[in-house]
DNA sequence: CCGCATCCGTTCGGATACTG
DNA sequence: CAGTATCCGAACGGATGCGG
C-alpha cells in the first residue's frame, strides 16, 4: 500500500485542526447542538415536563427515523443530558427524561429559539432581497 | 415508470415532515447555527471587532477550506447577518463585517458558548463514565 | 416494545486547478 | 486577492429486517 494520498494528508491536517478546536472547549457542545435532531428531542422532553417512553418521543418528534432517534438519545445520554431508565416488564419499558444538566442546557436553547422566533422575519426578508438581486 | 420506490415515498414523507418543521420557524435559524463553520466565522468577525478581509477570516478560522468559507460567508450574507463590501482596487478588496442583526445573534451564541465553557467538564465526565460502563 | 445491523442513495466537504 | 468549477472520497441518514 504505497498509496497514501488523501487519507494520510487528511489525517495529518485533521490532527492539526483538532488541536485548534480542542483549545475551544465549547465547540464540543456546539457540535452536539449542531445535530438536527438534538434540539428537537431536547425540546420534546422539556415541553412534556416528565419522563417519556421511547415511542412517545418518536411520536412527538414525528419525522425522525428510529435509527436517528436511538442514536440521538444515546448521544444525549452519554453526555449526561438525558437519563435512560429501563423497567424490565414483559415487553421492556424504557423512559427518557432530562437530567438537571439537560434542563440547564434547554434553557439556553430556549433563549436561542426565542431569538430565532423574534428575528426570523428579518432573516427571511434579507434572504428574499438577496435572492431578488440574483 | 411503474417503479416509484424510494424517491417517491421519500418525497411524500419530506413534504409531510417539512410542513411540521415549517410550523416551527425557529428551526430555520437553528439549522443555520447547526453548520459547523457558521459559529466559528461569526465569532471570528465578532472578536475582531471591525471588518475583516477574506484572507483574514481564512487565517483566523484556520481549518476551513476556501470552498466552505465562501459558502459560509455567502449564506450569512444572504441571511443579512454579515455585510460584504467590495472595493474595486486593482487586486479587488473584499471586507466582511457583522450587521446589527449578526451582532444580535452573536450575543446569543456567546451565551451558548459561555454555558458550554461552564459545563463542558460535566459533559466530558458523563461521557467518560458512560464509556467506562461500556 | 425497544433497539441493533445491514444496505444503499444522498449529501457534505476537501483537494485541485483555473479566472478576473 | 478573492473567488469559481470540478472531481471524488467520506459521512450522513432512511428503509428494512432481525433479536431480546
Q: What attributes characterize this protein structure?
A:
homodimer; mainly alpha; 3-stranded antiparallel sheet; elongated; DNA-binding; Arc Repressor Mutant, subunit A
Summarize the structure.
With 134 residues, the first copy, chain A, is mostly helical. Helices cover 70% and strands 10% of the residues of chain A.
Report on this model:
2 copies of one chain form a homodimer. The first copy, chain A, has 134 residues and is mainly alpha-helical. Chain A folds into 2 domains: 1-34, no CATH class; 35-133, Orthogonal Bundle (Arc Repressor Mutant, subunit A), CATH 1.10.10.10. Helices cover 70% and strands 10% of the residues of chain A. Chain A has helices at residues 6-22, 26-34, 36-48, 54-61, 66-78, 100-133; strands at 52-53, 82-87, 93-98. Chain A has a 3-stranded antiparallel sheet. In chain A, a hairpin with a 5-residue loop joins strand 2 (82-87) and strand 3. In chain A, helix 3 crosses helix 6. Chain A is elongated and about 60 Å long. Chain A starts with 5 loop residues before the first helix and ends with a helix. Chains A and B meet through helix 1, helix 2 and helix 6 of A and helix 1, helix 2 and helix 6 of B. The structure holds a DNA duplex (20 and 20 nucleotides).
Amino acid at each position: 500500500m504505497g498509496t497514501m494520498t488523501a487519507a494520510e494528508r487528511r489525517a495529518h491536517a485533521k490532527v492539526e485542526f483538532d488541536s485548534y478546536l480542542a483549545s475551544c472547549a465549547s465547540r464540543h457542545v456546539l457540535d452536539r447542538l449542531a445535530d438536527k435532531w438534538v434540539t428537537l428531542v431536547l425540546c420534546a422532553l422539556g415541553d412534556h415536563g416528565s419522563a417519556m417512553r421511547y415511542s412517545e418521543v418518536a411520536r412527538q418528534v414525528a419525522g425522525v427515523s428510529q435509527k436517528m432517534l436511538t442514536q440521538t438519545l444515546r448521544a444525549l445520554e452519554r453526555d449526561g443530558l438525558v437519563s435512560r431508565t429501563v423497567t424490565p416488564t414483559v415487553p421492556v419499558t424504557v423512559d427518557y427524561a432530562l437530567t438537571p444538566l439537560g434542563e440547564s442546557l434547554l434553557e439556553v436553547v430556549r433563549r436561542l429559539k426565542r431569538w430565532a422566533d423574534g428575528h426570523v422575519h428579518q432573516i427571511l426578508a434579507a434572504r428574499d432581497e438577496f435572492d431578488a438581486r440574483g
